[in-house]
Specification:
By secondary structure, the chain is α+β, with helices and mostly antiparallel strands. Among the domains are: 119 residues, no CATH class; 113 residues, no CATH class; 128 residues, no CATH class. The protein is 57% helix and 8% strand. It contains 24 helices and five strands. Strands 4-3-2-1-5 form a five-stranded antiparallel β-sheet, with helices on both faces.
């Protein structure tokens, strides 16, 4: 259980618990320090004080206890937690709040096993459901947390919960239902559409734009027809002009854009796209989207209530970790994300659920309604002229540029046999020869090793670098070149585009002669 760090006792356990219970804007470093302090005192009374929070009737105290237990509780604490669940004097809400911790610790009391320990299961479940609606009404992060729990449920329970959301007639339920319209099974999407119809006019200002978006983007014909029918009925039930008002309301609630940042591509074709918006209280909402060029949008995570100083610190920390980024236009970042989404669709890979939650903020207006011309995310492939050929012969110089230091042959497992053979040929795994070697023999051996290396490299290039591989790296180089050009590094951008032109399958420069590959 020890977290491996010791600090002087600067804060008492009681003051830490009070701070976590009463504040929701604790910065990560302070929170980490609090966890360290609690861990130091865990078996000396801190755990008992955390569990005592669950014996109160304060929802904020319950949330603080679960946050701490999620971080610090281990199998050694399971008996104490299960004793608390079995205690009839502990409120049903506290027990239900503890459910995720029990599940993480593989307790038999998790999920259905918890119900028999509730004093009034039906009332407790209704109360918990209402608390969930309060949570999702606060921010996208709350929606993300609840949706992860929903999607981990068995199918029938998921469908039952979706049906309850519709019958709740609570407009906050729409925050959970709309993300379920994307990247889910047909059965779940249809259930979510039906639940949105059940909500009716109370959520029409969000439901109508969401259904219109679904109809425009889904290829599943039965789902599209069902969504179109529900949209028609909702529009007829609502007051005249509700549909236009709903779309106008959706645009009106767009936050002021703050900044877009994009990282350079790494050796696997991945890059981070960072977006932030300014809230009315001058705090930021931020979203990070991970784009991998053979997958699409691979990950997405957001944050809320971040001050501008912290955003700047995160950018600086990423630079220190080798994930450098620079500021771009919102349009350029949006074009990258649209490109990534198209890859998800082409490769039939699901978007992360977090993207569905943050999508209205990320995508904003439909591209068809924007007046600005489309933004290119890559350089144009130059014609392979003699000047470009001469520049491509310096392709190995790219590896001296910091943004290319992580670029190696991918996938690495395909080139590994050639690396192993090279070291075997050099006798790395043989016993060293005893005795003195003359300088001449050493030089001969060195020359032979270099010739062997060149031969193996040529063989690897001829066997592994096919047109598909060349196409992938050509595109990566042109995208990296566009980023270098945006950063006003014209010479580096020209070198990247020249190497891309040499890699193009139609180029006259044989692959084994290209310095970038060797």
């Amino acid at each position: 259980m020890p977290r491996g760090r010791k600090r002087p006792p600067q804060d008492s356990v009681d003051s830490i618990l009070l701070a976590i219970s009463r504040r929701d804007n604790i910065d990560p470093d302070t929170l980490s320090h609090y966890f360290d302090r609690l861990d130091e005192e865990w078996t000396e009374g801190a755990r008992d004080k955390v569990l005592h929070l669950l014996r109160t009737h304060d929802p904020a105290a319950h949330a603080a206890a679960v946050l701490i237990l999620t971080e610090l509780a281990t199998d050694f604490d399971l008996d104490e937690l299960e004793d608390l669940v079995a205690d009839p004097t502990v409120s049903d809400m506290a027990k239900l709040t503890l459910s995720p911790v029990l599940k993480d610790l593989n307790s038999e009391m998790a999920d259905d096993g918890l119900i028999e320990y509730l004093n009034d299961p039906e009332a407790a479940m209704r109360q918990m459901q209402m608390r969930l609606l309060e949570l999702v009404g606060q921010s996208e992060l709350g929606v993300e947390s609840v949706l992860e729990d929903i999607l981990s449920m068995p199918l029938e329970r998921r469908l039952g919960f979706i049906n309850w959301l519709g019958s709740s007639h609570d407009p906050r339920a729409v925050n959970l239902l709309i993300p379920l319209l994307e990247n889910q099974t047909t059965k779940l999407v249809v259930a979510a559409i039906d639940a949105l119809e059940q909500l009716g006019p109370v959520a029409a200002h969000q439901t109508i734009p969401a259904l219109r978006y679904l109809i425009a983007h889904i290829s599943n014909r039965p789902v599209k027809e069902h969504a179109r029918a529900v949209l028609g009925r909702l529009t007829m039930q609502s007051a005249l002009g509700t549909e236009d008002a709903a779309m106008a309301d959706a645009h009106q609630h767009q936050l002021q854009f703050h900044e877009a940042r994009v990282s350079f591509l790494d050796g696997t074709g991945s890059q981070m796209i960072m977006l932030s918006w300014r809230r009315p209280d001058d705090l930021l909402k931020g979203v990070n989207v991970l784009y991998q060029d053979q997958w699409g949008i691979k990950d997405c995570y957001g944050t809320d209530e971040m001050n501008i100083k912290r955003w700047t610190e995160i950018v600086s920390e990423m630079n220190d970790q080798g994930v450098g980024s620079f500021q771009t236009s919102q349009e350029f970042a949006g074009a990258l994300i649209a490109e990534a989404r198209a890859i998800n669709k082409r490769t039939h890979r699901k978007l992360p659920i977090a993207y569905a939650i943050w999508r209205p903020l990320i995508e904003g207006e439909e591209p068809s309604k924007r007046k600005a011309p489309p933004v290119s995310t890559r350089l144009e492939l130059p014609e392979f002229t003699p000047d470009v050929l001469q520049l491509a012969k310096r392709g190995d110089e790219l590896y001296r540029i910091p943004e290319f230091t992580s670029w190696m042959f991918e996938p690495m497992d395909r080139v590994q046999p050639y690396i192993d053979r090279y070291w075997l040929n050099r006798g790395l795994f043989d016993a060293p020869n005893a005795g003195y070697r003359s300088r001449g023999r050493k030089n001969d051996k060195k020359q032979k090793a270099q010739l062997d290396l060149e031969a193996i490299i040529s063989e690897a290039i001829n066997e592994l670098v096919d047109n598909k591989w060349r196409g992938i790296y050509e595109a990566r180089l042109l995208r990296q070149g566009a980023l270098l050009q945006l950063a006003d590094r014209t010479e580096d951008a020209q070198l990247a585009s020249a190497v891309a032109a040499a890699l193009h399958p139609g180029s006259s420069m044989p692959a084994e002669e290209q310095p970038f590959l060797r």
